[in-house]
Design brief:
Chain lengths: 288, 266
């Protein structure tokens, strides 16, 4: 199946925004308020999972434009940032992957509160034209199919793909078809684009990156096969926030319809969307 | 003394006015190095301090570090297209005229305890270290398929991101980084230790420079007095290993046997 055009997705998303406004308010997502005058000239330090970087950067540009706040942003592997934060590192706002990390930071007293931000999803990707004639995950064990994976990539990049194969009950057979077992998801995408592979398993967000957008065909994977832990992204205010009102306002912006659209555009499921609300309930993304 | 069996055509020599050419050329070279620092400085910095791969500067096309200049300005392709071209035209001139790392090493070299401006067994054999560096880099890049041994700080503030990079680095990354820093520090003891004895890019250019069109060279009037060696930051002589065609030695020869331009053999 070819990747869906973006416009219908956006329409669905915007429609669902309106439908979810009440539910969102109930789950603690406040509407964004204009804070142009209140925070002018202030700085806010934000750390996030590196996977969010493509969405966070344009969102920050808009927020900076509106509020005259300067955001000092670091995006890197959330596990590493989380480890640093659980140690001695400090930041004012942290948007991490994996719900347990947010909970640990709350329990350690380092994070004041968190909100659901967005969710990721996994897809099969093939080069344009789908030369391997892949239509569903079971095709990955077909003789001659060249599977490219990055099991050595920072979690969950590689491990999640293996988990999906495992949950589908085809891990061992599929690995026999693996022609590349790399250490970086983006690098193995190059292998795919070079025609040296037929299929890979990646997060949908990867297909929206500038280097890959429009160059891959996207085939959905049944949600039941997704490994739950890496699906959730949260954003929380840390106890080190110098200006609590500013940090709160920034979170409100990211979780507002306008902020959430940046995440939708980059291939995430916004927390504010109908699907996001469903996942919040299903995965129990609630502050502890 | 010229190479055995090689005579030099005087028709292609450029005769400099005594005493001024080196100084002028050095001034231009420093300006060129500063320009190199402006253009490649940040990319160079990222390669050493934040590149998550073991061999920096060769995997930028699929690097997850978004803010690296090599990626931002597609320097990667331009650099690796222009570098061989510059080597074919001017040999190892990139090292002496444009490389930001070269500039840092040369400045450190001015403080070095041992300038090593001499010809002995060590200075003859040690430059082979650059070929070893090149071989190891090629092995890691092509045979080991360039493993990623660090957390890529995709976006981050300048120094905090470096701190995070080191905090989460893998063993292989730390080994390569401390080797580089070790050679850089060694440059305070032995002048330009990294550029002369370890740099893989230098080793690559050293291989190509043999066929370069333009160079600083010695004529058959060379008396082997080593005056040129005494003024060379790289502790070498024209056309010898580690000569970067910097031109510092143009006025050093009492016989006027050092020229810059195209050397033609009769």
């Amino acid at each position: 199946m070819v990747e869906k055009p973006k416009c219908p997705e956006r329409r669905i998303f915007l429609k669902s925004m309106a439908g979810c406004a009440l539910g969102a308010a109930a789950s603690g997502i406040a509407p964004f308020r204009d804070a142009a005058a209140a925070f002018k000239g202030k700085h806010l330090q934000v750390w996030s999972c590196g996977g969010l970087a493509e969405a966070m950067m344009p969102a920050h540009r808009l927020y900076e434009e509106r509020t005259a706040v300067t955001i000092n942003y670091t995006g890197a592997f959330a596990g590493a940032l989380g480890k640093s934060l659980l140690g001695g590192a400090q930041t004012e706002v942290f948007a991490g992957r994996v719900l347990d990390l947010a909970k640990k930071l709350r329990q350690a007293g380092k994070m004041v509160y968190f909100k659901p931000l967005c969710f990721t999803s996994y897809v099969l990707v093939t080069p344009k034209g789908n030369p391997g004639k892949i239509s569903q995950i079971g095709d990955l064990i077909r003789p001659g199919v060249r599977l490219v994976l990055a099991p050595g990539a920072s979690p969950p990049g590689g491990a999640a793909a293996l988990n999906i194969l495992n949950k589908a009950g085809i891990l061992d057979q599929a690995m026999k078809n693996a022609v590349e077992k790399g250490t970086c998801v983006q690098r193995v995408m190059d292998t795919l684009l070079a025609g040296k592979g037929d299929v890979s398993i990646v997060e949908l967000r990867i297909t929206r990156m500038a280097d890959f957008v429009g160059k891959l065909e996207v085939i959905p994977i049944p949600e039941a096969l997704f490994p739950p832990p890496p699906l959730t992204f949260t954003v929380g205010v840390m106890k080190y926030a110098k200006d609590r009102d500013l940090a709160d306002d920034y979170l409100s912006f990211l979780t507002s319809p306008q902020g959430q659209e940046f995440f939708e555009r980059q291939g995430f499921i916004p927390a504010l969307s109908a699907k996001g609300q469903e996942l919040i309930e299903k995965l129990g993304v609630k502050d502890v | 003394m010229s190479r055995q069996g090689e005579a030099v055509s005087p028709a292609v020599e450029v005769s400099p006015p005594a005493g001024t050419t080196s100084r002028t050329l050095t001034l231009w070279r420093r300006l060129s190095q500063l320009a190199g620092l402006a253009i490649w400085g940040q990319w160079s910095f990222y390669g050493i301090f934040r590149c998550p791969f073991i061999v920096p500067y060769v995997s930028c096309q699929n690097c997850p570090v978004i803010t690296c200049h090599g990626r931002l300005f597609t320097m990667f392709w331009g650099f690796w297209l222009l570098l061989p071209l510059s080597a074919l035209l001017f040999g190892r001139a990139f090292c002496g005229w444009a490389c930001p790392g070269g500039l840092v090493n040369q400045l450190l070299g001015k403080l070095a305890w041992f300038k090593l401006r001499t010809r002995n067994r060590f200075t003859r054999l040690a430059p082979w270290g650059a070929y070893l560096g090149l071989a190891v880099s090629l092995y890691i890049w092509m045979v080991m398929r360039q493993p990623r041994s660090n957390i890529p700080i995709r976006v981050g503030e300048f120094f905090p991101a470096v701190a995070l990079t080191f905090e989460h680095a893998g063993t292989l990354w730390l080994v390569r980084s401390f080797l580089v820093f070790g050679f850089l520090a060694l440059g305070l003891l032995l002048a330009n230790a990294w550029c002369r004895f370890a740099c893989p890019t230098g080793g690559l250019l050293e291989l190509v420079k043999r066929v370069s069109l333009f160079k600083v060279y010695r004529t058959d009037q060379c008396g082997d007095c080593d005056k040129c060696l005494q003024v060379c930051e790289m502790g070498t002589r024209p056309e010898a290993a580690n000569c970067t065609n910097c031109g510092d030695c143009l006025d050093a020869c009492p016989n006027g046997a050092i020229r810059i331009g195209r050397k033609k053999s009769l």
